[in-house]
Amino acid sequence: MVLDPFCGCGTAIVAAHKLGRRWIGIDITHLAIALIKYRLSDMFNLQEGKDYQVIGEPTTEAEARVLAQQDRDEFQKWAIGLIPRARPYQEKKGADTGIDGILRFQDDPKTIKTALIQVKSGKVSVNHIRDFRGVIDRENATLGLFITLEPPTSKMQEEADKLGFYTSPLGNLHIPRLQIRTIAQLLAGEGFQIPSSALLMGVAQAQRIERDAGQQTIPID
Length: 221
Description:
By secondary structure, this protein is an alpha/beta fold. The protein is built from 7 helices and 9 strands, in the order E-H-E-H-H-H-E-E-E-H-E-H-E-E-E-H.
């Protein structure tokens, strides 16, 4: 059994799994946990809940509310991690730019597109959507993904709809440019509409590897 109590980006876990060892990894940040999930999926095709368990992350709306009360910054990073391949816009706290996370995708040969993410754990109103629309226009982003712990109002949805649709060249799909999802929806598997190419960008994919037949020995002179 290999235990890494500060597992960070998961290098020790990956090495242990490759060598056929049982392992336990611990980290205090949800950003690190999300990164390790991607590495395990990319390199070994491991799936959370089936091949391994994550203990300590919210699995229900009630648990998400507890995390938001304890640490809003960690709640924000955890919520961003609910979007495949998304990453925080800035890892350290800084000036509020109106952008909490970012997701990049490329659905044509020439241009890399951007989806901006904003997370709200408190009360929300139509003004939040208007402000986010301004951020999307300012950054010339293709999509805006708004995550909220509280249910959005009908006025918020109407304001989001005003931004119209983005037509992806891949399959000629019409995607709402500003989308709203609650934490409850994301936990239930009701994700955002994003081009499938977004899964190949954002957090870099790790190379798929095969597990070793066994532990290798180190020759000693």
